[in-house]
Give the backbone structure.
Amino acid sequence: MYYISAASTISHQPAFLNAGFSGVIEPLHAGSELINPDYKEYIEPGLLRRMSKILRMSVACSGACLKQSQIEQPDAIVVGTGLGCLLDTEKFLNNALTIKGLLPPTSFIQSTHNTMAGQISLRLGNHGYNMTHTQNSVSFEHALLDAMLLIDEGEKHILAGAADEHIEFLDEISRNLNIKPAPGLTSGASFFILSAEKSERTLARVKDADAIGLVGNIPEKISMFLDRNKVKSGDLDLVLFAGSKVVTKDEIEEFQTFMKMENLHCMDYLKYSGIYPTASAFAMHFAADKIRHTRSLKNILICNSLIHSNLGLILIQSVEA
Amino acid sequence: MSVRITGIGIVSAIGLTVQENLLALKDGRTGIMPFSFRNDNKTFLAGAVRATNTDLRKELHIHDQYVSRTALLGLKAACEAWQNGKHCDEIRTGLISSTSVGGMDLSEKFYSAYLHGNNPDFEILRMHDSGSTTEKIAVELGISGYINTLSTACSSGANAIMLGARLLLQGKLDRVLVGGTDALTNFTVNGFRSLMIYDEQWCRPFDESREGLNLGEGAAFLLLENEKSIRFSGNRTLAFLNGWANAADAYHQTASSPEGKGATLAIQKAIEKSEISLSGISYINTHGTGTKNNDLSESVALKNVFGEHMPAFSSTKSFTGHTLAAAGAIEAVFSVLSIQHQLIYPNINFRSAIPETGLEPVTILQTEKPVSAVLSNSFGFGGNNSSLVFSNHE
């Protein structure tokens, strides 16, 4: 079993170091902003200046997780990111095309996808397994699956998380590709400590997860997933979903019909996280927080089909379940 | 606890197939040549694959309007390793690729057009993200389900192999195609130049006079199967993957620690896992990029582990150039070939040892010595160190 012993999120919701935030969230609206913590509590000012958004979010979230769990060194650090370090990638591309002569290397160094996992290990002096997964909209699920595999192999505490950053250029791309992402593209980061054993700090447990690429029959995959976990769809107290098959005026109804979940309580988490490739990590923190603070909840399914060819599934259960 | 390797595929500067790569390795023939990007007059040394995108599209029957060179190279190597594998519902099949640039070869063309106001085609950017490279390969091979991409800079390919092995051993998959692919891009050439570690001469791994790396491009894939899958496929076992480990150096975002901490840990843990004794390692295919920092740090790590009893070692990057995310996979294929054909490859361009360590790599092809186990190292930015151990036995 896999226990969530700490969770930390930077998003549009007041989630950072705020247990119980799941009770006070509000849908994103025009002009709503990312709620940044005081980064100086986690990062020295000199270093902070050179860090892009995705990097400072990841470092702060991982720092907050370790503090909550009172673990000095995790056995491994596993990160998922859909698009990686876009700010530094764009900056280096720009520099290369506009500057004649020697280019400053910092943005190249910080453009690689594993900058976050590397930087976290550097700050902790951590010599454990260090991995970065990047598979589009299921990058977080793949990072989580790796963390679960490490626990199956005998590790005790894994720092696992995901982050993606928004750059203005993404809005220009979506306009040109005629994609109208509602409720808007944004950034976000969520990190967790996944532990082999439960403690008084445990928020919830991850019963199972899956990431299915080039998925065919989504409802069938969902029932197979529930079956193998001996959970009936009626046992689900809440389904957090992203990406209904067809965007209609009533997305929830659309989703329920498509997923054959007519009688279930469903919630589109993108309305609260905004859209970024690893938003399902926000959903996992939301689910864990909700379960920890609502005694009656036993099972929450996160059903991520943000991109319809990929399906991410995470089953969160209360510790007593 | 070993995993069977039943298929290999490779495309690099020294050949478009396993056979061509093997021949060039035997002949000591480098693939690093003067190179320039199309529409650019700057010439530099690089290990380019001798096939244009048009050649690759034609051979692979790819008709999409846009497909990155990274995906084309990856698909070429993946097809060779997959050997027209058949699908069956009972055999859970996965694909784990790795890349550092993804579709950057297309994105940088787009971005140049965009900055110059030359009617940029935004559709190109659908190929940018690394995951789409892997999805393209999966679509062509008919693989669905576990499809994943790792991106840990220059150790990515080795990490994909490691993750595949772990998934087989934990019973999550029966068969998994693992590897990596990266195309040459202005982005990475400019990047390594900005770090002042791009050698304008032929790279000289482990040589006292080394000044940096030459970039290369390519891809390699290996097919890993469990017993159940082999009963279905009938594939012959080429070699075994016996040990693996990844460890963080936690020293600097790009440089390796002078005492080779992360590298030493990765090598030690991988050998320990393989249950092969230190003296049982016949050959080490090193990371050996030719940069002052890597080769010294790696030499120190090798001495930390092997002391005075250093096995034969060499870097094959002076053949292929540094192929970044593909390097770990390309060198894994070279390791399998080393075991299959009893070959220890020469470290071309080596003259005199690094004074601090005095280590001398193999400089002439060795064919007389039995090769039963090979250690392969891959180290990347962010202090990401991975080692794999291959052998001829379970």
Strands of chain A lie at 2-10, 76-80, 129-133, 157-164, 188-195, 204-213, 238-242, 266-268, 299-304, 310-317.
